[in-house]
Amino acid sequence: MPRKQSVTKDMLIDAAFELVREKGMEELSARHLAERAGCSTQPIFRIYKNMGELENDLFLRCADYFSGYFELDSNFSVIPFVNFGMTYISFAKNEPNIFRLLFLMENHVNKSSYDLINGGSKNYVIKELKRIKGIEQDDVESVFMKVWLIIHGTACMMIRNEFDITEKDTVNLLEDMFGKIYG
Q1: 135: Cβ contacts below 8 Å, ≥ 6 apart
Q2: CATH number at residue 41
């Protein structure tokens, strides 16, 4: 008789990721995770002290997935923060449950929204700020905060189906927004 496959931490995180991606964080429980992973709850609590510990690893997995999303090249506009904004908004529309976990729920791994969108050492935000010709150092924080409020607000409205506009209209909105903030 072949030996039964041992459940690993990676297998549990993969199963948790797919469960949350599909159904949302509300559905993540030891019982639902065990069903998804094809095991009992025993391996979950052999590997993790509690569900909170697993949720922290899941959060980091989702953060890596989000960062990889920004690796996709988008060419909507040459105006700073438009491609960045469209990628963020697209992520919210295409991955609403992961977006909610990363940006609308409290996390216990001390990752701020800025840490996530900047991509750590990938410096996505800083690269966009460097694209703004002639920006004074004193204006950087203010410009970013205004741009971020519009981008994040648009993404949140999209996933709540409160803001149904075309991709082209969203690009125009972001271009107009940037022009008004730093035109």
Answers
A1: 129, 143, 182
A2: 1.10.10.60
pTM of the model: 0.90
In this structure, are 14 and 100 located in the same domain? no
Query: Average pLDDT of 55-59?
Result: 97
Q: Which pair of structure tokens corresponds to residue 133?
A: 């010709």
Q: What are phi and psi of 77, to 5 degrees?
A: -160, 160
Q: Which domain holds residue 34?
A: 1-48
pLDDT digits (tens, 9 = 90+) for 166-179: 899 999 999 999 88
In whole angstroms, give the CA distance from residue 66 to residue 116.
8
Per-residue pLDDT at 5? 64
For residue 83, CA distances in Å to 59, 132, 163 come to 25, 14, 19
